[in-house]
Amino acid sequence: MIVRILTEGQFNLPGAYIDELNDIDNAVVEVVEQEDREGFAKNLKRMLDLVRQNGTPVPIEELVESDLVLPEPDITLEEAEEIFIGEGLIPD
Amino acid sequence: MGMLSRMSTIVKSKMNRMLDNAEDPRETLDYSYEKQLEMLRNVKRGVVEMVTAKRRLEIQAKKAQDNLAKLDTQARKALEMGREDLARLALERKQATITELDGLDQQIAGLELEQQKLTNAEQRLQGKVQAFRTKKEVIKAQYSAAQAQVRIGAALSGVSEEMGDITLAIERAETKTETLRAKAGAIDELVETGVLDEVGGGDSLDRQLEQISASATVESELEALRAGLPSGNKKALPGGQS
Q: Do B130 and A61 touch (CB under 8 A)?
């Protein structure tokens, strides 16, 4: 499974981690809804670390499309909220 | 997936979709390559803008730093002349300058980080574009329509996604630079109106200190003159009749 961390690049992550990623993703949605800044930072880091630690970087000369895209490491709670609320972020 | 699926949608919406509308897929390859080079130029420009914005903030920070020392001197001078009110004013300005300086330092650090990220992105894209160029020539050389579609598709989506990522990064960097530019403009205005002004720059605090010190000099010179006069004339001086 190819996973991209925005501004960091792509990783090849074994498919076995998909459930764990899913769980963290749900947790992220929850903390964003609650505007829990600390929880957001913690879960985001958990999510990215899971990919960084268990995935292998895709070589730069390899051109592949990602199956999953993760946000950039320094995304703020406000920016994350916009992703969930703002349909305007997704033009045609 | 909540966050992840949305992120994917956002990035994909930023990808250049070019494959569908070309009659000859080989043209698509060249066209996409042009787009990639254009994007590389954009990233490079973004980095330059970032450096310029940072430079400006650094100059402002330097100015603020210089002002701190000057305000200290002004405060001491004012106190020596028994003008506590002016000393207080100078120290108040010093505090405001310190706060301003803290903010500037943080912003400079923020820009530094952003610049690093953009530079990394540029290098990554450079690598991808190079890989794409090689692949493009191979595909064109061995072109057979049926097969080419698939391989072109894979190569294109790989590089397009990188472009989508970088488009987002550039947009963010631009927003940040814009905010900082506005902030820098506001600080420039402050400097102009004299809140962080330099000594001798028409600042009212400075002028007042200069006036006091000038009248003090006049007084002491008068005193010296008086001391030098023959004793008979001394009495006449206060009346000014001589």
A: yes
